[in-house]
Amino acid sequence: MRERRTGLHALVGAYVLDAVEDGDRAEFERHLLTCDQCRDDVRGLREATARLAAAAAITPRPDLRQPTMQAAAVIRQLPPAVASEHTATPPRRVRWHAGRAIARPWLAGVAAGLAVVLVVAAVVIGLHVGAMQERLATQDRRDSAVTAVLGAHDAVILTAAVSTGGTATVVMSHRARALVFTGNGLTRLPGVMAYELWLAGPAGVRAAGMLPPGRHGMSGPMVVGGVAGGEQLELTVEPASGSRQPTTSPVVRLVLGI
Amino acid sequence: MPGGQAGVRAGDEYGNVDIVAGSPADGARSAGRANPAGPDALQLALSAVARGDEAAFAVVYDRAAPAVLGTVRRILRNPAQSEEVMQEVLLEVWRTAARFDPAAGSAAAWITMLAHRRAVDRVRSEQRSAQREARSAAAAAEVGFDEVAEAVEASLDRERVRRCLDGLTELQRESVTLAYYGGYSYREVAQLLGVAVGTVKTRMRDGLIRLRDCLGVD
After folding, report:
1. Closest CB from A14, A47, A55 relative to B109
2. A169 to chain B nearest CA, in Å?
3. Does the N terminus or the C terminus of chain B have fewer Cβ atoms within 10 A?
4. For B9-30, what is each residue's pLDDT tens digit?
Protein backbone atom coordinates (compact mmCIF):
# COMPACT_ATOMS: atom_id res chain seq x y z
CA MET A 1 0.00 0.00 0.00
CA ARG A 2 2.80 2.33 0.92
CA GLU A 3 4.55 1.54 -2.31
CA ARG A 4 1.35 2.20 -4.23
CA ARG A 5 1.01 5.63 -2.70
CA THR A 6 4.63 6.47 -3.40
CA GLY A 7 4.09 5.42 -6.99
CA LEU A 8 1.16 7.77 -7.37
CA HIS A 9 3.04 10.67 -5.77
CA ALA A 10 5.91 10.16 -8.19
CA LEU A 11 3.42 10.59 -11.03
CA VAL A 12 2.74 14.24 -10.19
CA GLY A 13 5.38 15.58 -12.60
CA ALA A 14 4.27 13.40 -15.49
CA TYR A 15 0.65 14.32 -14.75
CA VAL A 16 1.29 18.05 -14.84
CA LEU A 17 3.28 17.64 -18.06
CA ASP A 18 0.36 15.69 -19.63
CA ALA A 19 2.82 12.84 -20.06
CA VAL A 20 0.43 10.26 -18.62
CA GLU A 21 -1.91 8.07 -20.59
CA ASP A 22 -5.66 8.17 -20.01
CA GLY A 23 -5.75 5.38 -17.44
CA ASP A 24 -2.97 6.92 -15.35
CA ARG A 25 -4.60 10.32 -15.64
CA ALA A 26 -7.93 9.07 -14.32
CA GLU A 27 -6.26 7.20 -11.49
CA PHE A 28 -4.16 10.19 -10.48
CA GLU A 29 -7.17 12.50 -10.58
CA ARG A 30 -9.06 10.18 -8.28
CA HIS A 31 -6.07 10.27 -5.97
CA LEU A 32 -6.04 14.09 -6.12
CA LEU A 33 -9.54 14.25 -4.68
CA THR A 34 -8.29 12.86 -1.40
CA CYS A 35 -4.73 14.24 -1.29
CA ASP A 36 -4.41 17.93 -0.30
CA GLN A 37 -0.65 17.82 -0.56
CA CYS A 38 -0.87 16.52 -4.12
CA ARG A 39 -3.25 19.30 -5.12
CA ASP A 40 -0.80 21.86 -3.74
CA ASP A 41 2.02 20.19 -5.67
CA VAL A 42 -0.01 20.18 -8.86
CA ARG A 43 -0.84 23.85 -8.43
CA GLY A 44 2.77 24.89 -7.97
CA LEU A 45 4.14 22.73 -10.74
CA ARG A 46 1.46 23.96 -13.12
CA GLU A 47 2.64 27.50 -12.59
CA ALA A 48 6.06 26.30 -13.68
CA THR A 49 4.61 24.80 -16.87
CA ALA A 50 2.79 28.10 -17.53
CA ARG A 51 6.24 29.71 -17.62
CA LEU A 52 7.44 27.06 -20.03
CA ALA A 53 4.48 28.00 -22.22
CA ALA A 54 5.19 31.73 -21.92
CA ALA A 55 8.80 31.09 -22.92
CA ALA A 56 7.60 29.50 -26.16
CA ALA A 57 5.17 32.33 -27.03
CA ILE A 58 4.69 33.15 -30.71
CA THR A 59 2.75 36.19 -31.89
CA PRO A 60 -0.28 34.90 -33.82
CA ARG A 61 -1.10 36.30 -37.24
CA PRO A 62 -3.30 39.36 -36.64
CA ASP A 63 -6.05 38.06 -38.92
CA LEU A 64 -6.79 35.14 -36.59
CA ARG A 65 -8.15 37.45 -33.93
CA GLN A 66 -11.34 38.79 -35.43
CA PRO A 67 -12.76 35.38 -36.50
CA THR A 68 -12.12 34.07 -33.00
CA MET A 69 -14.00 37.00 -31.48
CA GLN A 70 -16.87 36.47 -33.89
CA ALA A 71 -17.03 32.77 -33.15
CA ALA A 72 -17.13 33.44 -29.41
CA ALA A 73 -20.08 35.77 -29.86
CA VAL A 74 -22.26 32.89 -31.06
CA ILE A 75 -21.05 30.21 -28.64
CA ARG A 76 -23.11 29.66 -25.53
CA GLN A 77 -21.04 29.67 -22.35
CA LEU A 78 -21.23 27.00 -19.68
CA PRO A 79 -22.79 28.15 -16.42
CA PRO A 80 -20.65 28.31 -13.27
CA ALA A 81 -19.99 24.82 -12.29
CA VAL A 82 -20.73 22.20 -9.98
CA ALA A 83 -17.48 20.51 -9.10
CA SER A 84 -14.17 21.50 -10.56
CA GLU A 85 -11.11 19.31 -10.73
CA HIS A 86 -9.48 20.47 -7.52
CA THR A 87 -12.33 21.62 -5.36
CA ALA A 88 -13.56 18.41 -3.88
CA THR A 89 -15.14 19.78 -0.72
CA PRO A 90 -17.60 22.57 -0.03
CA PRO A 91 -15.21 24.58 2.22
CA ARG A 92 -12.82 25.09 -0.68
CA ARG A 93 -15.73 26.17 -2.81
CA VAL A 94 -16.71 28.83 -0.30
CA ARG A 95 -13.15 30.13 -0.21
CA TRP A 96 -13.17 30.33 -3.98
CA HIS A 97 -16.08 32.68 -3.88
CA ALA A 98 -14.65 34.64 -0.99
CA GLY A 99 -11.68 35.33 -3.23
CA ARG A 100 -13.88 36.67 -5.96
CA ALA A 101 -15.78 38.78 -3.52
CA ILE A 102 -12.58 40.50 -2.40
CA ALA A 103 -11.73 41.32 -5.97
CA ARG A 104 -15.11 43.01 -6.52
CA PRO A 105 -16.61 44.09 -3.20
CA TRP A 106 -19.85 45.28 -4.73
CA LEU A 107 -20.49 41.77 -5.89
CA ALA A 108 -19.98 40.29 -2.45
CA GLY A 109 -23.68 39.79 -1.85
CA VAL A 110 -24.20 38.15 -5.20
CA ALA A 111 -21.15 35.97 -4.73
CA ALA A 112 -22.22 34.88 -1.26
CA GLY A 113 -25.63 33.88 -2.58
CA LEU A 114 -24.02 32.00 -5.41
CA ALA A 115 -21.69 30.23 -3.00
CA VAL A 116 -24.63 28.89 -1.02
CA VAL A 117 -26.28 27.64 -4.18
CA LEU A 118 -23.10 25.98 -5.35
CA VAL A 119 -22.43 24.32 -2.02
CA VAL A 120 -25.89 22.83 -2.04
CA ALA A 121 -25.42 21.74 -5.64
CA ALA A 122 -22.11 20.15 -4.77
CA VAL A 123 -23.67 18.08 -2.04
CA VAL A 124 -26.54 16.91 -4.18
CA ILE A 125 -24.53 16.19 -7.27
CA GLY A 126 -21.48 14.62 -5.76
CA LEU A 127 -18.08 14.06 -7.20
CA HIS A 128 -18.93 11.70 -9.98
CA VAL A 129 -20.53 14.50 -11.94
CA GLY A 130 -17.28 16.41 -11.68
CA ALA A 131 -15.48 13.37 -12.95
CA MET A 132 -18.00 13.02 -15.72
CA GLN A 133 -17.56 16.62 -16.79
CA GLU A 134 -13.81 16.27 -16.63
CA ARG A 135 -14.04 13.29 -18.92
CA LEU A 136 -16.43 15.08 -21.22
CA ALA A 137 -14.06 17.97 -21.40
CA THR A 138 -11.11 15.85 -22.32
CA GLN A 139 -12.53 13.05 -24.40
CA ASP A 140 -15.92 13.96 -25.70
CA ARG A 141 -15.64 17.64 -26.32
CA ARG A 142 -16.43 17.10 -29.96
CA ASP A 143 -19.69 15.47 -29.12
CA SER A 144 -21.94 18.45 -29.60
CA ALA A 145 -25.06 16.57 -28.56
CA VAL A 146 -23.60 15.93 -25.13
CA THR A 147 -22.33 19.46 -24.68
CA ALA A 148 -25.62 20.87 -25.92
CA VAL A 149 -27.48 19.08 -23.14
CA LEU A 150 -24.88 19.84 -20.47
CA GLY A 151 -24.78 23.47 -21.50
CA ALA A 152 -28.53 23.85 -21.79
CA HIS A 153 -30.05 26.69 -19.87
CA ASP A 154 -32.54 24.44 -18.08
CA ALA A 155 -30.27 21.44 -17.44
CA VAL A 156 -31.06 19.61 -14.22
CA ILE A 157 -29.11 16.78 -12.68
CA LEU A 158 -30.67 13.62 -11.25
CA THR A 159 -28.82 10.83 -9.52
CA ALA A 160 -29.96 7.52 -8.12
CA ALA A 161 -28.36 4.42 -6.70
CA VAL A 162 -28.39 1.37 -8.94
CA SER A 163 -29.79 -1.63 -7.09
CA THR A 164 -27.02 -3.93 -8.31
CA GLY A 165 -24.30 -1.45 -7.37
CA GLY A 166 -23.05 1.95 -8.52
CA THR A 167 -24.79 5.19 -9.35
CA ALA A 168 -26.74 6.52 -12.29
CA THR A 169 -26.48 10.20 -13.17
CA VAL A 170 -28.67 12.01 -15.66
CA VAL A 171 -28.33 15.55 -16.91
CA MET A 172 -31.66 16.47 -18.44
CA SER A 173 -32.78 19.39 -20.56
CA HIS A 174 -36.55 19.52 -20.59
CA ARG A 175 -36.65 22.07 -23.34
CA ALA A 176 -34.41 19.94 -25.57
CA ARG A 177 -36.25 16.81 -24.46
CA ALA A 178 -32.85 15.18 -24.23
CA LEU A 179 -30.67 13.75 -21.51
CA VAL A 180 -27.14 12.56 -20.94
CA PHE A 181 -26.82 9.35 -18.96
CA THR A 182 -23.68 8.29 -17.10
CA GLY A 183 -23.15 5.25 -14.92
CA ASN A 184 -20.56 5.19 -12.18
CA GLY A 185 -19.12 2.04 -10.68
CA LEU A 186 -21.81 -0.16 -12.21
CA THR A 187 -21.30 -3.84 -11.51
CA ARG A 188 -19.25 -5.39 -14.29
CA LEU A 189 -21.31 -7.82 -16.35
CA PRO A 190 -20.13 -10.99 -18.04
CA GLY A 191 -19.43 -10.47 -21.75
CA VAL A 192 -22.73 -11.96 -22.89
CA MET A 193 -24.73 -9.42 -20.88
CA ALA A 194 -24.99 -5.62 -21.10
CA TYR A 195 -26.92 -2.71 -19.63
CA GLU A 196 -29.74 -1.33 -21.74
CA LEU A 197 -31.58 1.96 -21.31
CA TRP A 198 -35.33 2.29 -21.76
CA LEU A 199 -37.88 5.08 -21.84
CA ALA A 200 -41.02 3.87 -20.11
CA GLY A 201 -44.17 5.98 -20.40
CA PRO A 202 -47.93 5.87 -20.82
CA ALA A 203 -47.48 4.62 -24.41
CA GLY A 204 -45.27 1.70 -23.38
CA VAL A 205 -41.58 0.95 -23.11
CA ARG A 206 -39.11 1.75 -25.87
CA ALA A 207 -35.42 0.99 -26.16
CA ALA A 208 -33.13 4.00 -25.63
CA GLY A 209 -29.81 2.33 -26.35
CA MET A 210 -27.20 -0.11 -25.12
CA LEU A 211 -24.73 1.25 -22.58
CA PRO A 212 -21.17 0.67 -23.83
CA PRO A 213 -18.89 -1.19 -21.40
CA GLY A 214 -17.47 1.14 -18.74
CA ARG A 215 -13.93 2.46 -18.67
CA HIS A 216 -12.32 3.34 -15.36
CA GLY A 217 -15.62 2.67 -13.63
CA MET A 218 -17.49 5.14 -15.86
CA SER A 219 -20.14 4.04 -18.35
CA GLY A 220 -21.31 6.52 -20.96
CA PRO A 221 -21.91 9.38 -21.40
CA MET A 222 -24.85 8.44 -23.56
CA VAL A 223 -27.26 10.89 -25.14
CA VAL A 224 -30.94 10.02 -25.28
CA GLY A 225 -33.11 12.38 -27.32
CA GLY A 226 -36.79 12.65 -28.06
CA VAL A 227 -37.97 12.07 -24.51
CA ALA A 228 -41.79 12.23 -24.39
CA GLY A 229 -44.07 13.53 -21.65
CA GLY A 230 -44.51 11.24 -18.65
CA GLU A 231 -41.60 9.00 -19.54
CA GLN A 232 -39.17 7.54 -17.04
CA LEU A 233 -35.68 6.31 -17.70
CA GLU A 234 -34.97 2.70 -16.77
CA LEU A 235 -31.84 0.58 -16.88
CA THR A 236 -31.98 -3.20 -17.16
CA VAL A 237 -29.54 -6.06 -17.65
CA GLU A 238 -30.03 -7.70 -21.06
CA PRO A 239 -28.26 -10.04 -23.45
CA ALA A 240 -25.33 -8.17 -25.03
CA SER A 241 -27.15 -8.08 -28.37
CA GLY A 242 -29.96 -6.05 -26.80
CA SER A 243 -33.65 -6.79 -26.36
CA ARG A 244 -36.77 -5.42 -28.01
CA GLN A 245 -38.48 -5.15 -24.64
CA PRO A 246 -36.97 -5.39 -21.16
CA THR A 247 -36.52 -9.00 -20.01
CA THR A 248 -35.47 -8.22 -16.43
CA SER A 249 -36.60 -5.76 -13.76
CA PRO A 250 -35.00 -2.31 -13.86
CA VAL A 251 -31.90 -1.91 -11.68
CA VAL A 252 -32.59 1.81 -11.55
CA ARG A 253 -35.52 4.01 -12.52
CA LEU A 254 -35.34 7.78 -12.85
CA VAL A 255 -38.43 9.96 -12.90
CA LEU A 256 -37.65 12.65 -15.43
CA GLY A 257 -40.50 14.99 -14.50
CA ILE A 258 -41.25 15.78 -18.12
CA MET B 1 -26.86 43.27 -14.62
CA PRO B 2 -24.18 43.50 -11.95
CA GLY B 3 -21.64 41.53 -13.98
CA GLY B 4 -21.41 44.37 -16.42
CA GLN B 5 -19.78 46.66 -13.86
CA ALA B 6 -16.75 44.54 -13.19
CA GLY B 7 -13.55 44.25 -15.15
CA VAL B 8 -14.36 45.49 -18.61
CA ARG B 9 -17.56 47.34 -19.23
CA ALA B 10 -19.98 45.09 -21.03
CA GLY B 11 -20.80 47.86 -23.47
CA ASP B 12 -17.24 48.11 -24.82
CA GLU B 13 -16.86 46.76 -28.29
CA TYR B 14 -13.83 44.59 -28.69
CA GLY B 15 -12.82 46.81 -31.59
CA ASN B 16 -12.28 49.62 -29.09
CA VAL B 17 -9.65 47.71 -27.17
CA ASP B 18 -6.50 49.11 -28.66
CA ILE B 19 -4.08 46.28 -29.15
CA VAL B 20 -0.65 46.47 -30.64
CA ALA B 21 0.26 43.10 -32.10
CA GLY B 22 3.07 41.50 -30.21
CA SER B 23 2.56 43.61 -27.11
CA PRO B 24 0.07 41.72 -24.99
CA ALA B 25 0.68 44.06 -22.07
CA ASP B 26 -0.95 46.86 -24.01
CA GLY B 27 -4.11 44.83 -24.08
CA ALA B 28 -4.00 44.47 -20.34
CA ARG B 29 -3.73 48.21 -19.87
CA SER B 30 -6.87 48.77 -21.89
CA ALA B 31 -8.84 46.43 -19.68
CA GLY B 32 -10.61 49.45 -18.25
CA ARG B 33 -10.40 48.73 -14.55
CA ALA B 34 -8.77 51.27 -12.26
CA ASN B 35 -5.49 49.45 -11.94
CA PRO B 36 -5.51 46.16 -13.76
CA ALA B 37 -1.77 46.06 -14.50
CA GLY B 38 0.24 43.18 -13.15
CA PRO B 39 -0.15 39.45 -13.18
CA ASP B 40 -3.82 39.56 -12.18
CA ALA B 41 -4.98 41.40 -15.28
CA LEU B 42 -5.54 38.16 -17.13
CA GLN B 43 -7.52 36.74 -14.24
CA LEU B 44 -9.68 39.85 -13.94
CA ALA B 45 -10.41 39.75 -17.64
CA LEU B 46 -11.18 36.04 -17.39
CA SER B 47 -13.72 36.57 -14.63
CA ALA B 48 -15.42 39.18 -16.80
CA VAL B 49 -15.40 36.67 -19.66
CA ALA B 50 -17.20 34.23 -17.38
CA ARG B 51 -20.07 36.72 -17.35
CA GLY B 52 -20.19 36.89 -21.12
CA ASP B 53 -18.12 40.04 -21.58
CA GLU B 54 -16.85 39.99 -25.17
CA ALA B 55 -14.52 42.95 -24.75
CA ALA B 56 -12.83 41.16 -21.88
CA PHE B 57 -12.43 38.13 -24.13
CA ALA B 58 -10.41 40.29 -26.51
CA VAL B 59 -8.10 41.10 -23.62
CA VAL B 60 -7.79 37.43 -22.69
CA TYR B 61 -7.04 36.60 -26.31
CA ASP B 62 -4.31 39.20 -26.60
CA ARG B 63 -2.62 38.16 -23.39
CA ALA B 64 -2.97 34.40 -23.72
CA ALA B 65 -2.91 33.59 -27.44
CA PRO B 66 0.88 33.88 -27.93
CA ALA B 67 1.70 31.34 -25.21
CA VAL B 68 -1.12 29.08 -26.41
CA LEU B 69 0.07 29.20 -30.01
CA GLY B 70 3.70 28.71 -29.04
CA THR B 71 2.92 25.68 -26.88
CA VAL B 72 0.64 24.07 -29.42
CA ARG B 73 3.06 24.75 -32.26
CA ARG B 74 5.93 23.09 -30.39
CA ILE B 75 3.92 19.90 -30.11
CA LEU B 76 2.01 19.79 -33.39
CA ARG B 77 4.63 21.36 -35.70
CA ASN B 78 2.12 21.98 -38.47
CA PRO B 79 1.58 25.79 -38.54
CA ALA B 80 -1.96 25.75 -39.97
CA GLN B 81 -3.11 23.02 -37.60
CA SER B 82 -1.53 24.89 -34.70
CA GLU B 83 -3.42 28.06 -35.51
CA GLU B 84 -6.65 26.09 -35.70
CA VAL B 85 -6.00 24.48 -32.32
CA MET B 86 -5.06 27.84 -30.83
CA GLN B 87 -8.44 29.22 -31.87
CA GLU B 88 -10.20 26.14 -30.50
CA VAL B 89 -8.43 26.58 -27.18
CA LEU B 90 -9.35 30.24 -26.92
CA LEU B 91 -12.98 29.40 -27.73
CA GLU B 92 -12.88 26.72 -25.05
CA VAL B 93 -11.65 29.40 -22.65
CA TRP B 94 -14.62 31.53 -23.65
CA ARG B 95 -17.04 28.65 -23.25
CA THR B 96 -15.75 27.35 -19.93
CA ALA B 97 -14.50 30.57 -18.28
CA ALA B 98 -17.02 30.17 -15.45
CA ARG B 99 -15.36 26.87 -14.59
CA PHE B 100 -11.98 28.49 -13.93
CA ASP B 101 -11.04 28.05 -10.28
CA PRO B 102 -8.52 30.63 -8.98
CA ALA B 103 -7.91 28.43 -5.93
CA ALA B 104 -6.39 25.83 -8.25
CA GLY B 105 -3.91 28.18 -9.87
CA SER B 106 -3.43 31.26 -12.04
CA ALA B 107 -5.44 32.05 -15.15
CA ALA B 108 -2.29 31.66 -17.27
CA ALA B 109 -1.70 28.19 -15.83
CA TRP B 110 -5.29 27.19 -16.52
CA ILE B 111 -5.29 28.41 -20.11
CA THR B 112 -1.91 26.93 -20.98
CA MET B 113 -3.01 23.65 -19.39
CA LEU B 114 -6.04 23.56 -21.72
CA ALA B 115 -3.76 24.31 -24.66
CA HIS B 116 -1.15 21.72 -23.80
CA ARG B 117 -3.70 19.04 -23.11
CA ARG B 118 -5.55 19.65 -26.32
CA ALA B 119 -2.36 19.55 -28.39
CA VAL B 120 -1.25 16.35 -26.68
CA ASP B 121 -4.68 14.76 -27.13
CA ARG B 122 -4.57 15.67 -30.82
CA VAL B 123 -1.11 14.17 -31.28
CA ARG B 124 -2.00 10.98 -29.44
CA SER B 125 -5.23 10.39 -31.33
CA GLU B 126 -3.41 10.94 -34.62
CA GLN B 127 -0.70 8.57 -33.51
CA ARG B 128 -3.21 5.93 -32.65
CA SER B 129 -4.61 6.08 -36.15
CA ALA B 130 -1.27 6.40 -37.93
CA GLN B 131 2.35 5.72 -37.36
CA ARG B 132 3.32 5.39 -33.77
CA GLU B 133 6.62 3.87 -34.83
CA ALA B 134 7.70 6.83 -36.89
CA ARG B 135 8.51 8.98 -33.91
CA SER B 136 12.09 7.87 -33.57
CA ALA B 137 14.93 8.87 -31.34
CA ALA B 138 16.06 11.12 -34.18
CA ALA B 139 12.93 13.21 -33.80
CA ALA B 140 13.64 13.65 -30.12
CA ALA B 141 16.83 15.53 -30.90
CA GLU B 142 14.75 18.32 -32.41
CA VAL B 143 12.77 19.01 -29.30
CA GLY B 144 15.31 20.92 -27.21
CA PHE B 145 14.38 24.24 -25.67
CA ASP B 146 16.36 26.26 -28.20
CA GLU B 147 14.60 24.93 -31.22
CA VAL B 148 12.85 28.03 -32.50
CA ALA B 149 9.77 27.85 -34.69
CA GLU B 150 10.21 31.30 -36.17
CA ALA B 151 8.83 34.28 -34.35
CA VAL B 152 9.32 33.14 -30.78
CA GLU B 153 8.98 36.25 -28.71
CA ALA B 154 12.18 37.35 -27.07
CA SER B 155 11.18 37.96 -23.50
CA LEU B 156 12.30 38.00 -19.93
CA ASP B 157 10.27 34.83 -19.48
CA ARG B 158 12.29 33.11 -22.12
CA GLU B 159 15.65 34.13 -20.66
CA ARG B 160 14.62 33.18 -17.16
CA VAL B 161 13.28 29.81 -18.24
CA ARG B 162 16.41 29.09 -20.22
CA ARG B 163 18.57 29.87 -17.20
CA CYS B 164 16.45 27.71 -14.91
CA LEU B 165 16.40 24.81 -17.37
CA ASP B 166 20.19 25.02 -17.44
CA GLY B 167 20.13 24.44 -13.70
CA LEU B 168 18.53 20.99 -14.09
CA THR B 169 20.45 17.78 -14.54
CA GLU B 170 20.54 16.65 -18.14
CA LEU B 171 18.11 13.81 -17.53
CA GLN B 172 15.69 16.11 -15.68
CA ARG B 173 15.87 18.69 -18.45
CA GLU B 174 15.36 16.18 -21.23
CA SER B 175 12.50 14.50 -19.41
CA VAL B 176 10.70 17.80 -18.83
CA THR B 177 11.25 19.29 -22.29
CA LEU B 178 10.45 16.11 -24.21
CA ALA B 179 7.18 15.88 -22.33
CA TYR B 180 6.22 19.55 -22.39
CA TYR B 181 7.58 20.76 -25.73
CA GLY B 182 7.55 17.40 -27.45
CA GLY B 183 4.21 16.10 -26.17
CA TYR B 184 5.68 12.70 -25.39
CA SER B 185 4.29 10.44 -22.68
CA TYR B 186 6.61 9.34 -19.89
CA ARG B 187 6.73 5.88 -21.39
CA GLU B 188 7.79 7.32 -24.73
CA VAL B 189 10.36 9.54 -23.03
CA ALA B 190 11.76 6.51 -21.22
CA GLN B 191 12.15 4.73 -24.52
CA LEU B 192 13.68 7.72 -26.28
CA LEU B 193 16.21 8.22 -23.50
CA GLY B 194 16.79 4.54 -22.89
CA VAL B 195 16.11 4.73 -19.17
CA ALA B 196 13.62 3.03 -16.87
CA VAL B 197 10.05 4.30 -16.76
CA GLY B 198 10.27 4.87 -13.01
CA THR B 199 13.40 6.97 -13.46
CA VAL B 200 11.66 9.22 -15.98
CA LYS B 201 8.70 9.74 -13.65
CA THR B 202 10.90 10.90 -10.80
CA ARG B 203 13.08 13.06 -13.09
CA MET B 204 9.97 14.80 -14.40
CA ARG B 205 8.80 15.49 -10.87
CA ASP B 206 12.20 16.55 -9.53
CA GLY B 207 12.94 18.61 -12.63
CA LEU B 208 9.64 20.49 -12.39
CA ILE B 209 10.12 21.09 -8.67
CA ARG B 210 13.55 22.54 -9.30
CA LEU B 211 12.18 24.62 -12.15
CA ARG B 212 9.35 25.91 -9.98
CA ASP B 213 11.75 26.90 -7.21
CA CYS B 214 14.16 28.54 -9.64
CA LEU B 215 11.37 30.52 -11.31
CA GLY B 216 10.04 31.63 -7.95
CA VAL B 217 6.47 30.67 -8.77
CA ASP B 218 3.93 29.08 -6.39
Report:
1. A47
2. 20
3. N
4. 333 333 333 333 333 433 333 3
